C-alpha cells in the first residue's frame, strides 16, 4: 500500500451509535409472532360464572395460607448458527481488522467474512445469528468477535472456525468493542457499563471490577491498546478510562469533550487520538497527563472508525460516507468513496457512497 493511498475497508452501514443504544436488537427475532386470537362468543363463559369465579376465595393450603399457583419455568433462549448467504458480504458490516495474514470483517446476523486481498470476500459460519459489532486479533491465529446478546466468539485458526464463549441475551446488553492484549488476556466492552475480562483465552469470562468507570453505566463505545501496553476505553459523555495493568484497575480521566467518543488510536509511546460525535477529534502525547489538543476536521460528521496509515497519518470514517485523512501535521483532507453504478437510463457512472462507515 503506497503512503499516499489507503483503502477504506467497510460496508455502508447504519451508525454505530444507533447500535450502541439499541441493545434490544436480537438475532432471534425472525420467528413470526403468533396472530392474535379471534374471540368466539360461543366459547365465552357466562358473565355469572366469571363473576362467581372472581368472587371465590383463593384456595388455602393445609396451613391456612393461600396456595401459590405454580409458575412455568422460562425456557432459555438458545443461539442458532449463522446462515451462509450469497450476499452476506454486501450486507451490514460493522467492523474489520487485519490479522497480519487476512482481513476479517463482522456484521449483522452473526456474519463473519474473510479476504486475502480486500476485494474478494468469503463467508465463514459462526454459531450465532446475533449482530456482531467488533473483532480483534492478538496474533495471526487467535481472535475474538463480540456483539449483541452479550455474544463473545473466539477463533484459534485465523478466522476459519469460531466457537461460542459467551451468550447471555437475558442481559439485554450488547458488547461494542473488544481488545486482545495477547492470546490469553482479552477485554470486552459494551453498553451500560458492560465490561468482561478473561485471563485464560476465554475459557472463563468474568465481569471486571471497575467502579471508577462502570458506576454511571455509560456505554463503552470503543477501546484501544496503547503502545505502552495500557488500555484506553472511550464512551458516552466524554468518558475516558485508562488501565495500566491489563484491565485489573482503572482510572477515570478528565475529558476534553462532554459528547460521545466512539474510538481511540495509539500515538507514540504514551499518546492517543480519540474521535467521536460531530467531527470531534482530540490527541495527546501523554494520555495519563491529560493535556488534549483538538484537531480541526472542518466537518460535523460523526466519526465511528479510524486507522493509522503507513505515512504517519490517520484515516477516519463515519456518518454519511465521511472519509477524512489527517497527515502527520494534522492537516485534514476530505475524501469520497465511489462505487460503480447505473443511472435511471441504465448508463454506468461512479456514485458517491452516502451510507455510513463504521470501520
Question: How far from one another are the termini?
Answer: 18 Å
Task: Give the helix/strand class.
Answer: mainly beta
Q: Would you tell me the overall average pLDDT?
A: 85
Strand content: 25-35%
Q: Tell me the radius of gyration.
A: 25 Å
Q: Note the overall shape.
A: globular
Number of helices: 3
What is the string of SSEs from the N terminus onward?
HHEEEEEEEEEEEEHEEEEEEEEEEEEEE
Widest sheet: strand order?
A: 1-2-3-4
Give the fraction of residues assigned to helices.
under 10%
> Uncertain regions: pLDDT < 50 for 5+ in a row?
1-62
Largest sheet: 4 strands, antiparallel
What's the β-strand tally?
A: 26
What does it look like?
The chain is mostly beta strands and 359 residues long. Helices cover 5% and strands 34% of the residues. It has 3 helices and 26 strands. The strands form 7 sheets. Strands 1-2-3-4 form a 4-stranded antiparallel β-sheet, with no helix packed on it. Strand 13 and strand 14 (231-235) form a beta hairpin. The two termini are 18 Å apart. 40% of the residues are buried. The model is unreliable at 1-62 (pLDDT under 50).
Amino acid at each position: 500500500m503506497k503512503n499516499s493511498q489507503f483503502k477504506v475497508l467497510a460496508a455502508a452501514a447504519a451508525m454505530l451509535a444507533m447500535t450502541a443504544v439499541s441493545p434490544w436488537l436480537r438475532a432471534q427475532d425472525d420467528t413470526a409472532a403468533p396472530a392474535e386470537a379471534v374471540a368466539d362468543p360461543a366459547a365465552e363463559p357466562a358473565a355469572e360464572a366469571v363473576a362467581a369465579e372472581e368472587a371465590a376465595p383463593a384456595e388455602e393450603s393445609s396451613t391456612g395460607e393461600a396456595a401459590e399457583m405454580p409458575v412455568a419455568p422460562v425456557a432459555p433462549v438458545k443461539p442458532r448458527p449463522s446462515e451462509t448467504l450469497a450476499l452476506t458480504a454486501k450486507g451490514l458490516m460493522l467492523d474489520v481488522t487485519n490479522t497480519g495474514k487476512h482481513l476479517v470483517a463482522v456484521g449483522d446476523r452473526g456474519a463473519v467474512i474473510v479476504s486475502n486481498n480486500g476485494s474478494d470476500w468469503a463467508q465463514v459460519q459462526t454459531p450465532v445469528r446475533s449482530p456482531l459489532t467488533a473483532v480483534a486479533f492478538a496474533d495471526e491465529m487467535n481472535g475474538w468477535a463480540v456483539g449483541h446478546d452479550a455474544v463473545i466468539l473466539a477463533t484459534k485458526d485465523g478466522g476459519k472456525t469460531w466457537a461460542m464463549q459467551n451468550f447471555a441475551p437475558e442481559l439485554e446488553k450488547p458488547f461494542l468493542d473488544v481488545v486482545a492484549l495477547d492470546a490469553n488476556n482479552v477485554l470486552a466492552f459494551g453498553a451500560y457499563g458492560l465490561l468482561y475480562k478473561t485471563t485464560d483465552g476465554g475459557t472463563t469470562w468474568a465481569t471486571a471490577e471497575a467502579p471508577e468507570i462502570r458506576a454511571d453505566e455509560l456505554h463503552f463505545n470503543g477501546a484501544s491498546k496503547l503502545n505502552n501496553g495500557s488500555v484506553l476505553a472511550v464512551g458516552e459523555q466524554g468518558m475516558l478510562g485508562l488501565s495500566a495493568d491489563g484491565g485489573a484497575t482503572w482510572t477515570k480521566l478528565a475529558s476534553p469533550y462532554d459528547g460521545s467518543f466512539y474510538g481511540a488510536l495509539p500515538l507514540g509511546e504514551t499518546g492517543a487520538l480519540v474521535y467521536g460525535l460531530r467531527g470531534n477529534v482530540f490527541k495527546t502525547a501523554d494520555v495519563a497527563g491529560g493535556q488534549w489538543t483538538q484537531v480541526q476536521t472542518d466537518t460535523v460528521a460523526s466519526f465511528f472508525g479510524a486507522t493509522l496509515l503507513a505515512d504517519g497519518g490517520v484515516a477516519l470514517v463515519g456518518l454519511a460516507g465521511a472519509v477524512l485523512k489527517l497527515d502527520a501535521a494534522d492537516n485534514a483532507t476530505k475524501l469520497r468513496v465511489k462505487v460503480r453504478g447505473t443511472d435511471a437510463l441504465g448508463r454506468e457512472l461512479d456514485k458517491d457512497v452516502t451510507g455510513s462507515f463504521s470501520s
